[in-house]
Amino acid sequence: MRVINFNPGPAGLPLPALERARDELLDFEHSGMSVMEHSHRGREYEAVHNEAIALLTELLGIPTSHQVLFLTGGASQQFAQVPMNFLTPGTSADYLMTGVWSEKAFEEAKYYGTPRVAVTTVQPDKHYTRVPHQDELRLDAKAAYVHMTSNNTIYGTQWHTFPDVGAVPLVVDMSSDFLWRKQDVGGIALLYAGAQKNLGPSGVTVVVAARDFIARGRKDIPKVFRYGIHAENNSLYNTPPTLAIYLVRNVLAWMKSVGGLAQIEAWNRQKAALLYGALDQHAGFYRAPVERASRSVMNVVFHLPTEALDAAFVAEARTQGMVGLKGHRTSGGIRVSTYNAVTVENVQALTSFMEHFVKTHG
Ligand code: PMP
User: Fold this and answer.
1) Which domain range does residue 315 map to?
2) Which of 207, 236, 257 is the last residue of a domain?
3) Closest-lying ligand 1 atom to the alpha carbon of residue 152
4) Are 148 and 110 members of one domain?
5) Residue range 55-102, pLDDT digits in tens
6) Which pLDDT value is given to residue 331?
7) Is the terminal CB of the chain with fewer CB neighbours within 10 Å at N or C?
8) 161-204 pLDDT, tens digit each
9) What are phi and psi of 186, to 5 degrees?
10) Same domain (yes/no): 176, 303
11) Domain identity same for 188 and 72
């Protein structure tokens, strides 16, 4: 019996994608071995690799100006790799600070140049409950790039409209909301996302970057860290995480089969409406700290009246087959992560439980 999985990442995967992996595990396409036992340069694996890129390109409508890369090292490696490639000596980059992950990205950039805080929504208690408004940004027109985190996994805030950064290249950490909807990526210089939330298992990081931006990357850094080297080699410069990419292929094929990102977005909006609706209806019991306009569609954060009730909520939900609800250790409370594999029915089960919990503990 599978549980209802609200884990923040690694997160639940769509059942059809896992079932396909199970069915193909021992004998991939009558080759007598699993996909992970194939050479990354063999035609069987290469077909999977290229299909994953093609599916992603089709689902998101990625323009030919941009290229898809499959890298390793997680989003954390991207925190370093972006400045390593683009923050050349003597230049500065603007960081939009909206949570712990932006702070980590900013810290890594300091090894290579002088990152600047162009805005922060940090509060005196060190937490964040919103993303900034356009008129709060103090951008430097000469910056090498602007870095932002589109969805703040820990605090449950999300940029619903991306900021206007003028002619400066925009770099976006989309780890926790990549593919939640169709989105024009043509104006983004480089985006990255660890796969383990919306699109697969951990182990692979998807990068979508403008070819002309990649070309600007430094050539005097080790090859394995150059976006340009991975781009020239179709992400086969070294051995890629073949099993993880295979699973990403399965998840993308599932997304296409259910109707693509239009359907995925409709489900995500329904799930968020159900959850925020339940929170607003019982606002005297459940406290949702995030400003309305910044509420995340992917991570819904709230607190019960006491920490003891937070713990009781998590424990009782577990007895109902719902796991992954404990808030991040830095902010406590409850966090419901409703990535693409979480169904509307799963969220309905949770909102029914929330109603019941208010009646019995409110
Ligand atoms: N950025 C965001 C928005 C995240 O949610 C996470 C992980 N939860 C990271 C970066 C770090 O990712 P990784 O563990 O893949 O390095």
Assistant:
1) 260-361
2) 257
3) 3
4) yes
5) 999 999 999 999 999 999 999 999 999 999 999 989 999 999 999 999
6) 87
7) N
8) 999 999 999 999 999 999 999 999 999 999 999 999 999 999 99
9) -60, -30
10) no
11) yes
Rounded CA gap, 21 and 29, in Å? Answer: 11
What is the whole-number distance in angstroms between the Cα of residue 358 and the centre of ligand 1? 33
- Complete DSSP assignment for 43-87: HHHHHHHHHHHHHHHHHHT--TTEEEEEESSHHHHHHHHHHHHH-
CATH code of the domain in which 87 resides = 3.40.640.10
Nearest to 102 by CA among 78, 86, 125: 78
For residue 196, which atom of ligand 1 is closest to its CA?
15
Best CA proximity match to 114, nearest among 145, 70, 138: 145
Task: For ligand 1, atom 2, name the residue with the nearest CA.
Answer: 175
Q: How far is the CA of 362 from the centre of ligand 1 (A)?
A: 35
In a domain, 3, yes or no: no
Residues 148 and 82 in one domain: yes
Burial class (CB in 10 A: 0-12, 13-18, 19+), 324: buried
Distance 281 CA to ligand 1 centre (A): 32
209 and 235 in a single domain? The answer is yes
